[in-house]
């Protein structure tokens, strides 16, 4: 299940803070800050989607993510490759390297990462 843009923005804050009270979440937003009711609604929807949960601390709730950022991002990237690049990682890599204006150094770093993964798979 996917998050809306506003849910994703809130999830980014929660991933960064790891655990947060409502006040912490609102403080992390840039101005103009959303209303408490807006954040509460987003958190409830995200809880229903099993992305966040909370523990009760007196009258407050401490929220925490149930989904790791890496897992969420990985699912998105794999969906992107499947839906826009005919399920071809090489088409995605070609598009990524040509369209993102990477510097020579960034391309060399990327090549090193790929070479390292190749070595892991074929020692």
From TrEMBL:
Family according to the record: Belongs to the BlaI transcriptional regulatory family.
Full protein name: BlaI/MecI/CopY family transcriptional regulator
Pfam families, sorted: Penicillinase_R
Family annotation (SUPFAM superfamilies): Winged helix' DNA-binding domain
Gene Ontology MF term list: DNA binding
UniProt keywords, alphabetically: DNA-binding, Transcription, Transcription regulation
GO biological process, one term: negative regulation of DNA-templated transcription
């Amino acid at each position: 299940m996917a998050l809306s843009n506003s849910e994703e923005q809130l999830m980014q804050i929660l991933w960064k803070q790891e655990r947060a009270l409502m006040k912490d979440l609102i403080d992390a937003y840039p101005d103009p800050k959303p209303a408490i009711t807006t954040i509460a609604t987003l958190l409830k929807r995200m809880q229903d989607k099993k992305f966040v949960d909370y523990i009760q601390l007196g009258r407050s709730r401490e929220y925490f993510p149930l989904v790791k950022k890496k897992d969420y991002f990985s699912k998105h990237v794999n969906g992107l490759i499947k839906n826009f690049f005919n399920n071809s990682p090489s088409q995605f890599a070609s598009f990524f390297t040509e369209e993102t204006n990477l510097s020579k150094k960034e391309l060399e770093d990327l090549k090193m990462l790929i070479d390292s993964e190749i070595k892991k798979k074929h020692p």
